[in-house]
Write a structure and sequence with these properties.
Number of domains: 2
Pfam families: Peptidase_M19 (PF01244)
Mean pLDDT: 91
CATH architecture of the largest domain: Alpha-Beta Barrel
CATH superfamily of the largest domain: Metal-dependent hydrolases
EC number: 3.4.13.19
Protein name: Dipeptidase
Subcellular location: Apical cell membrane; Membrane
Distance between the termini: 104 Å
Bound molecules: 2-acetamido-2-deoxy-beta-D-glucopyranose, zinc ion
GO molecular function: beta-lactamase activity; metallodipeptidase activity; modified amino acid binding; zinc ion binding
Radius of gyration: 23 Å
Order of helices and strands: HEHHEHEHEHEHHEHEHEHHEHHH
Structural class: alpha/beta
Helix content: 40-55%
Length: 410
């Protein structure tokens, strides 16, 4: 060989920089749209949603994976912020708590108008790209947030919700979660109940993206089959590479491919390597794998920043996306494939969801009278306890009278 051995390390160093430079160049025109970030949860936990607390200043906040300088360094151009309320609020104050998380997202946009632009459609994302701002959208994480009400679903849509994750890590009365597949929870709906099907149809009608992160495999299959529009996994990785039930199995990746849907890869170590430790290269393996099985059009990013306790070395916070993109370029992804994973794939899905929506069609009404809706799972009277504890004295009296009357009629 004409080159000396000493030249190769130099070549390696230079090309490494070149991939990073190309990543940055690409991201200047096509920044990343991330599917899931839990900063609003951190704001609640650490500051009780008091955004004016000087410690919560998003410019200097440094206890989180996300802050304004890191978003800028990471070329984040759009973020679905998670409006999340834990499963233990189900049948209690989940609706109120969800509204408060939507409120804190909207206040972020108001307080930092130079950085965030709250938008509710695909055109809004593109506008934010042009203005160099972070398009901010609301993703509601967990079907318990609608408290089994199509009315609440519609109202959340009007407040800006543009995806709903059908479950968090608990069943709703109408959809099963991933813990059913580990045996920790019992299947209740075998996927989607008939009310669950009405929820999916109403989401299609409204133009809310169906998110299948956190749901059981049967729920994935049912929703992929029923939905008129493509769906997303806002923060899930590939089951074949790490056998965790939060990840997407191969036969579902086939359905993703057939429906033009999207898997936004989660960076949480436990879903990437199934171990406490992971690295950037292993996340790239998931992106490669989903591309191989479902096509480059099915790949996206859903880092789960500020929702997880352990992140891969090389992807410690939201400033690191360009390093991951450089790794994809190193693995010979084409520019078009990279732009797809960064933003174009999500824009394609979102536009298809918008096109499939039909606001002229009459709203779906509650298919079952509220009082009868899976009464065993749902307390109509709000706060905790079994429904019987909350029977009003009047209702109790009425039941007794009815009982006596029916006895008389016998
Ligand atoms: C955050 O801090 C910066 C400077 O450190 C200041 O200019 C800005 O007004 C603060 N923003 C809020 C909302 O407190
Ligand atoms: C984080 O910010 C606080 C004040 O906002 C500052 O006192 C502290 O030194 C910072 N820590 C790091 C690691 O930058
Ligand atoms: C990432 O982790 C894997 C598995 O531990 C290891 O084989 C690989 O060398 C690591 N890659 C880098 C770049 O550190
Ligand atoms: Zn989650």
């Amino acid at each position: 060989m004409w080159t000396g051995w000493w030249l190769w390390p130099l070549v390696a160093v230079c090309t490494a920089d070149q991939f990073r430079d190309n990543a940055v160049r690409l991201m200047q025109s096509t920044p990343v749209i991330d599917g899931h970030n839990d900063l609003p949860w951190q704001l609640l936990k650490n500051f009780n949603n008091q955004l004016q607390d000087p410690r919560a200043n998003l410019t200097s906040l440094n206890s989180t994976h996300t802050n304004i300088p890191k978003l800028k360094a990471g070329f984040v151009g759009a973020q679905f912020w998670s409006a999340y309320t834990p499963c233990d609020t189900q049948n209690k104050d989940s609706v109120k708590r969800t509204l408060e998380q939507i409120d804190v997202i909207q206040r972020m946009c108001q307080l930092y108008p130079e950085t965030f632009l709250c938008v509710t459609d695909s055109a809004g994302i593109q506008q934010a790209f042009q203005e160099g701002k972070v398009a901010s959208l609301v993703g509601v994480e967990g079907g318990h947030s609608i408290d089994s009400s199509l009315g609440v679903l519609r109202a959340l849509y009007h407040l800006g919700m543009r995806y709903l994750t059908l479950t968090h890590s608990c069943n709703t009365p109408w959809a099963d979660n991933w813990l059913v597949d580990t045996g920790e929870d019992e299947a209740q709906s075998q996927g989607l109940s008939s009310f669950g099907q009405s929820v999916v149809k109403e989401m299609n009608r409204l133009g809310v993206i169906i998110d299948l992160a956190h749901v059981s495999v049967a729920t994935m299959e049912a929703a992929l089959q029923l939905s008129k529009a493509p769906v997303i996994f806002s923060h899930s990785s590939a089951y074949s590479l790490c056998h965790h039930r939060r990840n997407v199995p191969d036969h579902v990746l086939q359905l993703v491919k057939q429906t033009g849907s999207l898997v936004m890869v989660n960076f949480y170590n436990d879903y990437v390597s199934c171990k406490a430790e992971a690295n950037l290269s292993q996340v790239a393996d998931h992106l490669d794998y989903i591309k191989k099985v479902a096509g480059a059009g099915a790949v996206g990013f859903g880092g789960d920043y500020d929702g997880v306790s352990r992140l891969p070395s090389g992807l410690e916070d939201v400033s690191k996306y360009p390093d991951l993109v450089a790794e994809l370029l190193r693995r010979q992804w084409t520019e078009e494939e990279v732009r797809g994973a960064l933003a174009e794939n999500l824009l394609r899905v979102f536009k298809a969801v918008e096109q499939a929506s039909d606001h002229k069609q009459a709203p779906g009404e509650e298919p079952i009278p509220l009082g009868q809706l899976e009464a065993s799972c749902r307390t109509k009277y709000g706060y905790s306890g079994t429904p019987s504890l909350h029977l009003q004295p009047g209702a109790l009296l009425a039941s007794l009278v009815t009982l006596l009357l029916s006895l008389c009629l016998l």
